[in-house]
Design brief:
This protein is α/β, with parallel strands linked by helices and 397 residues long. The strands form 2 sheets. Strands 1, 2, 3, 4, 5, 6, 7, 8, 9, 12 and 13 form an 11-stranded mixed β-sheet that branches. A two-stranded antiparallel ribbon has the order 10-11. Strand 5, helix 3 and strand 6 form a beta-alpha-beta unit. Helix 3 packs parallel to helix 7, helix 5 packs antiparallel against helix 14 and helix 8 packs antiparallel against helix 13. It starts with a strand and ends in a 6-residue tail after the last helix. The model has no long low-confidence stretch (mean pLDDT 92). It binds guanosine-5'-diphosphate-alpha-D-mannose (GDD) and magnesium ion. Magnesium ion binds next to loops.
Length: 397
């Protein structure tokens, strides 16, 4: 794979934010190494190096009642060496869709001889392991993990930690193109290979997000992303005193992190989860507030934003209200202790313009989940380790 060199990096305290890097070539050929001059503009990542990172990465596929064919396609796009974890919150009562997902995964693993796990988000043992390990932020009144992709993501971070994975990457199950899934995973590996710090995050930017309803129009930016990025950049600009447009991936659902970083962040629910990760990084390591972890502050936190070649086409589930998507993300920015009056006013202006709030109304306060590092890992492992065998879909021979 050949990717644009990290030409421009902005610093915010200990955080290094890299400008968007485009994928130039999906397969960069054999041994021909780059010359020193070429290396100024381009990074060539050889297959073996990428594979090495893939081996250390748990790919989590959150799913809730997606078409089986879509889920199967997504799974088939994940590089062979990455272990897959399907975190499912699918129907089990009327139709046992979870059973169907498990069967599909099992059959797939049987033929491809690869390792994957599938677990139900409402698994009582998973909830018990979390509760006993002292992490109740994602548990509902019934004692089980709450609904939501974000809650499934957080639970997966604990599982990745228990399985000693160094990296975790998320890929939605409703993606139509297995080839784009493959490219996301390669970009995750590429980001980690380029990182100089073990506290790193890779966020995917799609070159295009086509809309079939518009006669296959290859749209580049969603309106929600545009607004969220603008407000996130405003927060950074007013803190540093230099205007910036560096953040282009505030809402990136497809993203990956080193476990060391994932365990340090605060998380929010639904559409706020991805912007909140950035806010959490800026609050914890931006140098304005006390640093959250000395070793991470010293090593620096590195953000990569990589633009893929494949367009992103996912399942249309009916028009989400712009307001429902916009409000939670802007809420995380508005209520951050880094957010000053200029950005607050900008957020209110944006929301009023889209009739997302009433005059005098404020965006909602995000419900934050504490960083996963606060858990008693031994207790979690004691309950979950044995059970992971039950969730595995490939019998060891
Ligand atoms: N485990 C789990 N639990 N997965 C869920 C749940 C749940 O309760 N709810 C939804 N999912 C799965 C879906 O099946 C899908 O694979 C993925 O999570 C994303 O859900 P979508 O419903 O497809 O989200 P979206 O397409 O509206 O939003 C995507 O893009 C947003 C930014 O534009 C997601 O990636 C969001 O996280 C992201 O904010
Ligand atoms: Mg989707």
């Amino acid at each position: 794979m050949r990717v644009e060199q990290t030409r421009y990096t902005e610093r915010f305290g200990s955080v290094r934010i890299n400008e968007v890097q485009k994928v130039l070539e999906l397969d960069s050929g054999g041994d021909n190494d780059l010359s020193a001059t070429e290396r100024i503009a381009v990074v060539k990542l050889n297959e073996e190096m990428l594979r090495d990172y893939e081996r250390k990465t748990l790919i989590v596929i959150p799913t809730k009642d997606e078409k089986l064919k879509l889920l199967e396609g997504v799974i088939s796009g994940v590089p062979h060496d990455s272990v897959i974890l399907v975190m499912s919150n699918s129907e089990q009562k009327k139709v046992d869709r979870f059973r169907m997902e498990s069967d599909t995964l099992e059959q797939y693993c049987h033929f491809t001889r690869r390792k994957a796990y599938i677990i139900h988000q409402k698994d009582p043992e998973l909830a018990r392991a979390l509760a006993e390990a002292g992490y109740k932020d994602i548990l509902g009144e019934d004692g089980l993990i709450k609904n939501g992709k974000a809650e499934g993501m957080i639970a997966s971070i604990f599982i990745a930690g228990m399985m000693n994975h160094k990296y975790i990457g998320f890929i939605d199950a409703d993606n139509y193109f297995p080839g784009s899934v493959w490219e996301y995973c390669k970009c995750y590996a590429a980001g980690f290979a380029m990182a100089r710090s073990s506290y790193a995050m890779v966020r995917i930017l799609w070159r295009y997000k086509p809309k079939i309803s518009e006669g296959m129009y290859f749209r580049k930016w969603g309106r929600v992303s545009e607004i969220t990025n603008r407000c996130m950049n405003s927060l950074l600009s007013s803190r540093s005193g230099f205007e910036t447009e560096i953040i282009k991936t505030s809402n990136a659902g497809e993203h990956a992190m080193s476990l060391k970083l994932a365990e340090l962040l605060c998380y929010a629910s639904r559409f706020a989860v991805e912007p909140q990760e950035l806010i959490s990084i800026f609050e914890s390591f931006g140098g304005v507030l006390p640093m959250a972890c000395k070793s991470a502050a010293k090593a620096g936190v590195e953000l990569f934003q990589i633009e893929t070649r494949n367009p992103h086409l996912h399942e249309e589930k009916g028009e989400e209200h712009l307001k429902d998507m916009l409000l939670p993300g802007l809420g995380t920015i508005y209520h951050s202790s880094l957010c000053e009056d200029v950005t607050k006013a900008k957020i209110i202006d944006e929301l009023l313009q889209y009739n997302a709030i009433e005059p005098d109304e404020k965006p909602p306060l995000p419900q934050l989940c504490q960083p996963p590092k606060s858990i008693n890992k031994k207790k979690f492992k004691a309950i979950m380790e044995e059970r992971m065998g039950l969730y595995s879909t490939l019998e060891e021979h």
